[in-house]
From TrEMBL:
Keywords noted in UniProt: Glycosyltransferase, Membrane, Transferase, Transmembrane, Transmembrane helix
Pfam families: Glyco_tranf_2_3
Keyword Transmembrane: yes
Phylogenetic lineage: Archaea, Methanobacteriati, Methanobacteriota, Stenosarchaea group, Halobacteria
A single GO molecular function term of this UniProt record: glycosyltransferase activity
Identification of the protein by name: Glycosyltransferase
CDD domains assigned to the protein according to its UniProt record, in alphabetical order: CESA_like
Length: 463
């Protein structure tokens, strides 16, 4: 018998030890690659991440000599600063100028013209296991201010719930039609292309099933199409949870800000497969969306760019969408996006063999910036460590304040327009989005080279 005051034994019994060992063995088996390709994939990913981190640290510790310009005839010589400090200045300058460009663009945006009638717009809503959220897009489109609108819901043949839901709307609403994608099944691109072939309206639009569309958007887009070929709107993930909040600020940094200066310099504007209204002639000019591409929207944007179509943004009337609801969905969805970017880059490089114009040669460089920019973002973590070790940590305040400040300004704007509930404090953590997304991007690029076999990750919606 154990004495009354004796401490309980902390030594595991034989059965508990066996269970622990079995769980450890199961975890080890789950991590073990099933093939040589998977082993090469995992090794390459870990090796590349480690190489970027180490190289970033070594580079950040280098001293850069900067010549100071002459002022009033007096030469001020030069100064020596850490490369990590230069990285802070570069990131701050890029995102600071991008924020100014974004807010300036929104300030001068024309939204006064909003016709209620005009050319018929076919709003295509592709659905795949989206029956629970289909009401968001269909009902918000029908509630919009543009009356000459026809909603075409395109469901996949194996999705009985979405087919039934679409047919319910079609039976109840005169402006809704339900189609089953029997012609090009298996992809969002195929669904949109099928709807385009089955209709003949002058204008086409595409929306995701989970979008809540601003009631003014279609009307304003129709007015803008008098002077352009494609109108691209903004989408805002609803930050109603931890993972969803990460998705929101990721959208702010990497969607709203990161490509702003690139657009000004190169005239490349993203033309996606949601929140978009276009002339049918523009859609036909690029043969629609490519079902073979994992990110059909990114490939479509470059097709529009090479065809010299005029794509404009309409930022002030944003749609809200569901964000990823779990870490697994967040990771899987971003990995799919970045794998698709790598696939698009590959396709653009092949296209350079027979260039159509200078944009055919410029497009791969722009796409490569999205793919390989993740390497730069991850290296910022190492350079931040250099500043901490060197006692120059105060320099970090500059990029942190720039990113957080821009995110706060956009969050306040979205809150004032009732797109999000309140402001909160999560904007303070916005800089963490860069290395997180960088890890996913590197993972996707490596997977595309070693193990990707065409699979398409689908996230849960309506949960």
């Amino acid at each position: 018998m154990r004495p009354r005051n004796a401490l309980p034994s902390i030594s595991p019994g034989p059965s508990r030890l066996r269970r622990t060992l079995r769980r450890g063995a199961a975890a080890a088996r789950a991590l073990r690659p099933d093939s040589v390709r998977e082993a090469a994939d995992a090794t390459a990913y870990v090796g590349l991440v480690a190489a970027v981190v180490v190289a970033g640290y070594l580079q950040g510790g280098m001293t850069v000599v900067v010549a100071v310009p002459t002022v009033l005839g007096v030469g001020l010589g030069s100064i020596a600063i850490l490369q990590a400090v230069m990285a802070c200045l570069s990131v701050s300058g890029m995102f600071g100028c991008s924020a100014l460009a974004l807010f300036g663009q929104r300030a001068v945006e024309e939204t006064d013209r909003r016709p209620a009638t005009g050319p018929t717009v076919t709003a295509v809503v592709p659905v795949h296991r989206d029956a629970a959220v289909l009401h968001r897009s269909v009902e918000s489109l029908l509630d919009g201010r543009y009356e000459d609108l026809r909603v075409v819901v395109v469901a996949e043949p194996d999705d009985a719930d979405s087919i039934a839901r679409a047919r319910e709307y079609a039976a109840r609403e005169d402006r809704v039609e339900a189609l089953v994608n029997t012609r090009y099944p298996g992809s969002k691109a195929g669904a949109v292309n099928y709807a385009a072939e089955a209709t003949d309206s002058e204008y086409l639009a595409v929306f995701d099933a989970d979008e809540r569309v601003d009631p003014r958007f279609v009307s304003s887009a129709v007015a803008r199409l008098d002077d352009c070929d494609v109108v691209q709107g903004r989408t805002v993930p609803e930050p109603d949870g931890l993972v969803e909040t990460v998705a929101y600020y990721e959208s702010v940094v990497l969607g709203d800000l990161s490509q702003r200066l690139l657009t000004l310099v190169t005239d490349f504007t993203m033309a996606a497969s949601r929140t978009i209204v276009m002339r049918r002639s523009a859609f036909d000019a690029v043969d629609g969306y490519d079902p073979a591409m994992l990110t059909e929207d990114y490939a479509f944007a470059f097709d529009c760019y090479e065809a010299d179509l005029d794509v404009v943004e309409l930022l002030s009337q944003a749609s809200t969408i569901e964000g990823a609801h779990s870490v697994a969905d967040w990771w899987g969805q971003r990995k799919r996006w970045m794998t698709g970017y790598a696939q698009t880059l590959h396709d653009l490089l092949v296209g350079c063999r027979s260039p159509r114009n200078y944009r055919t040669l410029l497009a791969p460089l722009l796409c490569a910036g999205s793919v390989f920019g993740n390497v730069f973002m991850l290296s910022l973590v190492s350079k931040a460590a250099v500043l901490v070790v060197s006692g120059a940590v105060t320099w970090l305040a500059l990029p942190v304040a720039t990113l957080a400040g821009a995110a706060l300004a956009l969050r306040v704007g979205d809150a004032r327009r009732d797109r999000v509930d309140g402001v909160g404090l999560a904007w303070l953590a916005t800089p963490l989005v860069l290395p997180l997304y960088s890890l996913v991007g590197i993972r996707a690029a490596v997977a595309y080279l070693f193990t990707w076999d065409g699979e398409w990750y689908s996230v849960a919606k309506g949960v």
